[in-house]
Automatic annotation (TrEMBL):
Family, similarity comment: Belongs to the glucose-6-phosphate 1-epimerase family.
Entry's Gene Ontology molecular function annotations: carbohydrate binding; glucose-6-phosphate 1-epimerase activity
The protein, known as: Glucose-6-phosphate 1-epimerase
InterPro entries (alphabetical): Aldose_1/G6P_1-epimerase (IPR008183), G6P_1-epimerase (IPR025532), Gal_mutarotase_sf_dom (IPR011013), GH-type_carb-bd (IPR014718)
Disordered, as annotated region: 1-23
Start-end of Low complexity biased regions: 14-23
Cited function: Catalyzes the interconversion between the alpha and beta anomers from at least three hexose 6-phosphate sugars (Glc6P, Gal6P, and Man6P).
A UniProt-annotated Pfam family: Aldose_epim
Catalytic reactions on record: alpha-D-glucose 6-phosphate = beta-D-glucose 6-phosphate
Organism: Morchella conica CCBAS932
Length: 304
């Protein structure tokens, strides 16, 4: 059941000091969530991009060593948020927007810590037209409201989004969590949960159905799997590393640029593709319509 949460007033970003016992702290546009047991997640206000998730003393997300973290460019790594368009559209209301839309290149408001206990902490971020540049507002002139919630537990990282149409016009959108998972060696990775699912291969421009029970990554992979019914499991050498569970996000994009990462200016090191696999939970294979005053909610949990 969708509940109509209104975006509350932002809190000043100078708030909060770090605590050895966990909690939320804010410094230089970076919000840190941490638990007394040692897990942490860092979220930049720029793009509300999760740039670090540490559990068991290890970083779980891939962040390019050349990633720009100063708000001049979408972050290469972590969890950039894709909205309102996945990829680049050539026509329609999102045609004037850059690839993957504006959510990942705008500065979000910190709405605050919404829940906390010994084993879990949730922090919310908000974005509306007032946070967009004049040019972006012109390019996509809808009255929208986004509330993005990041929840850290001892064994998972959850990302949830609420999209509101606050205007008088229906709009179409895509939404995706562009999650760069860190892996020891992508050549040993197998991905389960995609058997018998139809996908569009963006490398070859073809459509196919996956026959193999597991997808292994031995070259550039860029596939949009539509209507994936269950969770996706990432294994390394047969051992499960991550299980990605989705709610109201029907599609899964699997991306690894392989050696063509050499063509991506902010990708590093040059063999960094070996240490990442993007498993992107999204609603991207078709447009989603949001009528005036309606709300749409979705989420993804990466379980260890
Ligand atoms: O370089 P960007 O805009 O962050 O996109 C990275 C990749 O994102 C993936 O989601 C797309 O399927 C790829 O086609 C794209 O190359």
């Amino acid at each position: 059941m969708v509940h109509e949460r209104k975006k509350p007033a932002p809190i000043p970003v100078s708030a909060g000091g770090a605590s050895a016992h966990g909690g939320m702290s804010v410094e230089d546009g970076r919000v840190k969530l941490s638990l007394p047991s040692g897990e942490s997640a860092d979220v930049l206000l720029y793009g509300a991009t999760v740039v670090s998730w540490i559990a068991g003393g290890e970083e779980k997300l891939f962040l390019s060593e050349k990633a720009c973290l100063d708000g001049t460019k979408a972050v290469r790594g972590g969890i950039p948020l894709v909205f309102p368009v996945f990829g680049k559209s050539t026509d329609g209301p999102t045609a004037a927007l850059a690839q993957h839309g504006f959510a990942r290149i705008c500065k979000w408001e910190l709405l605050g810590k919404t829940s906390e206990n010994e084993s879990s902490i949730q922090v919310d971020f908000g974005l509306g037209p007032e946070n967009l540049t004049v040019d972006l507002r012109k390019a996509w002139p809808y009255a929208f409201g986004l509330i993005y919630s990041v929840t850290l537990t001892r064994t998972s990282l959850e990302t949830k989004i609420l999209v509101r149409n606050e205007g008088n016009e229906t709009f179409d959108f895509n939404l995706l969590f562009h999650t760069y998972l860190r892996v020891p060696n992508v050549g040993n990775v197998s991905i389960e949960g995609l058997k018998d699912i139809a996908y569009r291969c963006k490398v070859t421009g073809t459509e196919a159905v996956q026959e193999m029970p597991e997808l292994s990554i031995q070259q550039e992979v860029d596939r949009v799997y539509a209507d994936v019914p269950g969770s996706v499991v990432v294994k390394s050498g047969g051992t499960p590393l991550y299980r990605v569970e989705r709610s109201n996000l029907e599609d899964v994009v699997v991306w690894n640029p392989w050696e063509s990462c050499a063509n991506i200016a902010d990708f590093g090191p040059s063999d960094g593709y070996k240490n990442m696999i993007c498993i992107e939970a999204g609603a991207v294979s078709k447009w989603h319509k949001l009528e005036p005053q309606n709300v749409w909610e979705a989420g993804a949990i990466v379980h260890l």
